[in-house]
Design goal:
This protein has about 280 residues and is an alpha/beta fold. About 55% of the residues lie in helices and about 20% in strands. The structure holds ligand C2E and magnesium ion (MG) (3 copies). The site of ligand C2E has 23 residues, from strand 2, helix 2, helix 3 and strand 6. This is Bifunctional diguanylate cyclase/phosphodiesterase.
Length: about 280
């Protein structure tokens, strides 16, 4: 009796695992044709200046619509990294982001686009020269392109990492550390990496109690000394925004201001934002 229930549980576990693996195999295969089938699009999430909520940048976020279903980045980015397909997908993301930078700067002046780059792409020795060519090809100003990397880039060869970051910065591109604080070596990242921007992860912004505010204050103090600008990710309430602004955080991003926007909604958002500024 006992034995059969255990084996039942095991078979449930097997079924669960098997269906998860089936799903992964399915998605991995479909990722191979997703670009040519035009299943990807970018959405744009505003980043505002804390002092006056003027929009200063948009983060480009990848969306995959497969047979009418939206697949979340956390479900497919990892798979695309495993197969190496992320290189082509990431290249496409950069191309589309450069086009958007051109459109935004022509119409609205000084607005940046922040692009998430996978550790797999970033470790390619030719990454920075590819970006250099792209900037020339699209005729955009490098300072409007921000590259977001996570602390996971630290797992690879450090020398190449530093070289790539320096090369990008010498072009005028800004480099951000994304999801800051969630990696395994945040303080070494602070010490060793010469980035331009630190994005404090949403998990910290979610709990701005006394301890949480102490952590934010510490990040602000280190960043001030290192010359980093600080962005808070995942700001959802006015109370969070007020606390973060008081703590000196430079930029805020989150659902409080807007959800990620479709391409055609971006202009309307900027116009509305600028009208609010004028009043
Ligand atoms: P991320 O770069 O940290 O992006 C922030 C994520 O948090 C986005 O989710 C965004 O929609 C969400 N978010 C922002 N503000 C709020 C908020 O106030 N509340 C809540 N609940 N969520 C908020 P998304 O678009 O699902 O992206 C998840 C992750 O996927 C990104 O995290 C990034 O690591 C990765 N990703 C997205 N696009 C790309 C891409 O083009 N290339 C690569 N390599 N990774 C990407
Ligand atoms: Mg990001
Ligand atoms: Mg992030
Ligand atoms: Mg995050």
């Amino acid at each position: 009796h006992q034995k059969s229930s255990i084996s039942q549980r095991w078979s449930f576990f097997d079924d669960h695992l098997a269906s998860r693996m089936k799903r992964e195999i399915f998605l991995r295969n479909r990722l191979d044709t997703a670009l040519e089938n035009e299943e990807f699009r970018l959405v744009f999430h505003p980043i505002v200046r804390a002092s006056d909520t003027a929009v200063v940048a948009f983060e480009a976020l990848l969306r995959w619509q497969l047979d009418g279903e939206n697949i979340a980045p956390h479900e497919f980015i990892g798979l695309a990294e495993q197969t190496g397909r992320i290189r082509q997908i990431g290249y496409w993301v950069l191309q589309k982001s450069c086009l958007e930078i051109r459109m935004l700067t022509e119409l609205y002046g000084s607005i940046s686009v922040c692009v998430n780059v996978s550790v797999v792409q970033f470790q390619d020795l030719s990454f920075a020269s590819t970006i250099e060519e792209m900037i020339r090809y699209y005729g955009i100003e490098a300072r409007f392109l921000h590259i977001e990397i996570t602390e996971s880039v630290f797992s690879g060869d450090k020398e190449n990492l530093f070289f790539t970051i320096k090369h990008l910065q010498s072009l005028g591109i800004k480099v951000s550390i994304d999801d800051f604080g969630t990696g395994y070596s945040s303080l070494s990242v602070m010490q060793d990496l010469n980035v331009n921007i630190v994005k404090i992860d949403k998990s910290f912004i979610d709990k701005l109690d006394l301890n949480g505010m102490t952590i934010v204050a510490a990040v602000m103090s280190i960043s001030a000394n290192m010359g980093y600008k600080v962005v808070a990710e995942g700001v959802e309430t006015a109370e969070q925004a007020e606390k973060l602004t008081k703590a000196g955080v430079h930029y805020l991003q989150g659902y409080l201001y807007e959800r990620p926007l479709e391409l055609h909604q971006v202009s309307g958002f900027i116009q509305k934002n600028r009208e609010q500024m004028a009043h």
